[in-house]
Amino acid sequence: MRESADAHLAVRPQLRWPARPGRAGGEAGGDLPRYRIPAGPMDPETAYQLVRDELMLDGNARLNLATFVTTWMDPHADRLMAECAAKNMIDKDEYPQTAELESRCVNILAELWHAPDARDAVGCSTTGSSEACMLAGLAMTRRWRAKRRAAGLPADRPNLVMGANVQVCWEKFARYWDVEPRLVPLAPGRTHLTGDEAAPRCDENTIGVVAILGSTFDGTYEPVAEIAAALDRLAAGGGPDVPLHVDAASGGFVAPFCDPDLAWDFQLDRVVSINASGHKYGLVYPGVGWVLWRDHDHLPAELVFKVDYLGGTMPTFALNFSRPGAQVVAQYYSLLRHGREGYRQVMEGCRDVAGRLSDLIAAMGPFELVSDGATGIPVFAFTVRDAASAGFSVFDVSELLRTRGWQVPAYHFPPALEELAVLRVVVRNGFGPDLADLLAADLGRAVDRLTASGRPAPPRAEATSAFHH
Ligand SMILES: *Cc1c(COP(=O)(O)O)cnc(C)c1O
């Protein structure tokens, strides 16, 4: 270590550790303060280089096929975001135009998602879909509680019905706000929620059902219209009248452009709220999500605070107070810059790449596709058909791909499909056909190596942590 550190210093003499008084070797061998604040200031160039060098150990974002989050934006977006880095989203009085761009984005999404009145759209930006889901869940809880109280019924045991494949934010919502999570188990051949499974689990204490447009585990769309129809039948038959929320974290920016005939949004009367992540297929760097309600009736007024200590009186419904404004500006930029046709091209391009890559993978002996990425969001999962006879598992493949820089996560499905272990590829803007071919080639080599080494498949317990993004 010492040797390479010195060699490094030889070419970049500005990178000397700050000398520590009373300690020998401060020039090159002293401590870089890590876990305590240094006593004095440091030259910014040195600090910059130190931090930057340390970050070289991070993965390469473009080769990270695990994340759903945008890892590439064009240089104009970079510039705009840098110019807005100091803007606080909550200071709507000081930055009225940033606030205006936020509300334009809400209008745009309301139109894309067929809200009954897109001009009088009800919604806001958030830090991401997790916060958006918390807000939507809170609104459903409040409405359920108000209805129960008005009828003189107890309102202390709310539950939420959703597939076991929900993203972790819904389990967080349930735990943080004391709502019983009713997780519908998966089954062989059924990797997400269906109407037939959801409706029977609803009762008078159900605040809502969550349908996912673009399941985290395999990219498939849940059949939102079918779930809505099952809930319609439940209510028509004298059962509870249960609202439907659509978690369109990924699909909210894919379906409107690629699947215009699919009814999944406010076109379905049962859908009361929808969330999406601007920083996933919304094509913005991390830190922005969106949540919209069908109309004012579905967002209880008591959840909206009016604050005046920043000048002016602005309504706010958020878990955070201060947060960056640059991402919201960048969202408006992306919508403006791409337009409907631009988003369609980007998303269709991603689907083409996902389809081509999943075809190549399906053609490799040991793999079997769980989804193909060509319908739904451009995300697909695949498994090793028979790990015991292949002599390796998805976890071995993931590990070996890492040695080439690719991050392709391997994980087990949630209950009751725990036996299914998969690798998942998230195709995003910036992952083109060339990179896809390179990945396929590396995957082929990994299979050859694993087959040749004939290692026995590791016991299942070796990697049990579910992978959520
Ligand atoms: C990513 C994701 C979330 C959480 O979104 P963040 O924007 O990362 O907070 C919620 N639901 C689904 C379906 C997701 O894919």
From TrEMBL:
SUPFAM superfamilies with a match to the protein in the record: PLP-dependent transferases
Any one GO biological process: L-glutamate catabolic process
Modified residues (N6-(pyridoxal phosphate)lysine): 280
Keyword entries, A-Z: Decarboxylase, Lyase, Pyridoxal phosphate
InterPro entries to which the protein is assigned, alphabetical: Glutamate_decarboxylase, PyrdxlP-dep_de-COase, PyrdxlP-dep_Trfase, PyrdxlP-dep_Trfase_major
Pfam family, one: Pyridoxal_deC
Transmembrane segments: none
Name this polypeptide is given: Glutamate decarboxylase
Species of origin: Frankia nepalensis
